[in-house]
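HUMAN: Please help interpret these tokens:
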Amino acid sequence: MANVIVVGAQWGDEGKGKVVDIYTEHAQEVVRYQGGNNAGHTLVIGDEKTVLHLIPSGILHADKRCIVGSGVVLDPKVFLEEIDGLRKKGYLKDDSQLMVDGAVNLIMPYHIKIDIAREQKSGAKKIGTTGRGIGPTYEDKVARRGIRFADLLKPETFKRKLHEVLPEKNFYLEQFLGEEPLSEEAILEEYLGYAERLRGYLGHGSMVLGKAMKAGHNVLFEGAQGSLLDVDHGTYPFVTSSSTIAGGACTGAGVGPHLIDEVIGISKAYVTRVGEGPFPTELHDEMGDQLRNAGSEFGATTGRPRRCGWLDIVALREAVRTNGLTGIALTKMDVLSDLETVKVCTAYRYKEELLEDFPQDFDVLKECTPVYEEIPGWQKDICSLTSYEELPEQVQDYVNKIENWAGCPVVLVSIGPRRDQTLFRRNPFTGKG
């Protein structure tokens, strides 16, 4: 038995969907433990691309059970649209393959409206949210004002909770944000209309996982966003509203930390970021455009162009430490194939100081400039290679340097978007290459 957490080791969009899809082959249960439909995981099977926002990436494997853990916030409309899209492609033929923990908090129409209106009101101080209502939903969860998935399936409970909270939300929308109020009747009609379709997915995720682990099942925990967007340990306030690091898997799925065997951090061979916030290695030149175009760096959820920059070892070391990474999965190595040289940030310069550790102070971080080491490129097409040993010497040297700088082994190298464009060095479920 092995239980493995997959986390983003940067600011998200690292390629977690592909890695989860690959590792799912070795698991019986796949759990999404935090975030909402502000995250998009892209999977490419053959020539077919599938983008998932709420449902775990393991859903493309018919014999696996996928669980949406209690740490997730869920928009029922988006969830049902995702189910319909999967079915059109021939997936999710058996509803028992998918479960939603009853403690999952629902994203309500007022959460979305508040999210969008706040960003507009913030002007230049906006934080770059996706406008999907994620932050306001987590606020209500922590304030114990949230409406849960299980509540939706009990009409009288849902009506009562909505009736209690909506006047407060409408007051805030009207009096502070200058928006039109929402109709209680319209929300009831919409959401209770979802309830019957959703009833069959209700479950107790933590209990199911506990029994599965006792039975010797392998469990794969799938995170959303990236470690540097963690609400506690990220570049606050330019972060998401949940715990994206490995510890969030335990709280967001309801399992004890002693049950976790491996934590794999996904890192691109360079770095991207969506939205606002500090980004020391960001490139504002033709090289940044080249990385963006070569890597198709546009958000799977929003379509927004991603900010691009060189690999940041200082930030990667932070992810290794906060997650307790046992391995790094290095993705999009092929995007660098045309470059004569590749730069890697190994330290920051802040005024007269040389910093090798990631600053917690936002005001310090935004004034840091990268200290680069330049290494030779390979300028060879690597997309069709079938083993790590076939990679050009320069690529292997790049991987070795990353391992040494980050203090963590690279266990997988992705050389393209497809499943078969993956080179394994060690499988966290089997311990083999």
Notes: Residues 155-176 form the longest helix (22 residues).
